[in-house]
Amino acid sequence: MKLADVESHMQKTIEATQRSFNTIRTGRANASLLDRVSVEYYGAPTPLKSLASINTPDSSTITIQPFDRGSMNLIEKAISLSDVGLTPSNDGSVIRLNIPPLTTERRKELAKIAAKYAEEGRVSVRNIRRDAVDSIRKQEKNSEVSEDEARDLQEKVQKLTDKYIAKVDELLAEKEKDITTV
Q1: DSSP label at residue 83
Q2: CA distance 170 to 118
Q3: What single-letter DSSP state applies at residue 85?
Q4: Worst-scoring range by mean pLDDT, 27-41, 88-102, 164-178?
Q5: Is the Cα torsion angle 155, 157, 160, 162 positive or negative in sign?
Q6: Fold of 3-22+103-180
Q7: Helices 147-180, 3-22: crossing angle, 10 deg rounding
Q8: Which string of b and e fits 79-110 if b means at least 16 CB within 10 Å?
Q9: CA distances for 59 relative to 98, 102, 105, angstroms
Q10: Please, which residues bridge with residue 98 across strands?
């Protein structure tokens, strides 16, 4: 396994963690809150953003305008059943989601969810490290690399791991700041 591959896998983990953080609601309206919502459309689960245009006209409202008016009720139902925690209101042409201000209690819950996502990201990075170290040891055992080279490679993998875990921690600190800012 090459170091470039290891770093690439770790970078993808960071991006996945960032996407997870984007789905957590802060006090402001954000279209990415609806990224995980899928609508049962003609018998197939379809991402909401494929069925409608999603806008944020102000900091406390998300508007969803379906491309096909016939899908309005399906979209409304999917949002209601999702884990977004918002109630859609339908005026016949546009679905509105009003984002209520967060309570202190809810902010703490969201911070815990963010911490859980961060821990998942750290675990993924550590799993990549474990796989890389196992691969290096196997190469050493098969005499493909010397003992010194193996040790150097393992140190480099550890440095990459530390770097990417620090990035996850930075993302978490940033998200917690967003959540706790009133």
Answers
A1: T
A2: 10
A3: -
A4: 27-41
A5: negative
A6: Topoisomerase I; Chain A, domain 4 (1.10.132)
A7: 10
A8: beebebebebeeeeeebebebeebeeeebeeb
A9: 9, 13, 21
A10: 61
CATH tag for 31-98 (out of 1.10.760.10, 3.30.1360.40, 3.40.190.100, 3.30.2350.10): 3.30.1360.40
In the chain, domain spans? 3-22+103-180, 31-98
> For residue range 27-48, what is the model confidence (pLDDT) as tens digits?
677 787 888 888 888 888 888 8
Tell me whether domains 3-22+103-180 and 31-98 share a fold.
Answer: no
Query: SS3 sequence, 103-170?
Result: CHHHHHHHHHHHHHHHHHHHHHHHHHHHHHHHHHHHHHHCCCCCHHHHHHHHHHHHHHHHHHHHHHHH
pTM of the predicted structure, to 2 decimals: 0.72
Which tokens sit at 116? 């859980």
State phi, psi for 56 to the nearest 5 degrees.
-125, 90
Amino acid at 6: V
Nearest to 137 by CA among 151, 127, 124, 126: 151
pLDDT tens, residue by residue, 149-162: 999 999 999 999 99
Amino acid at 83: D
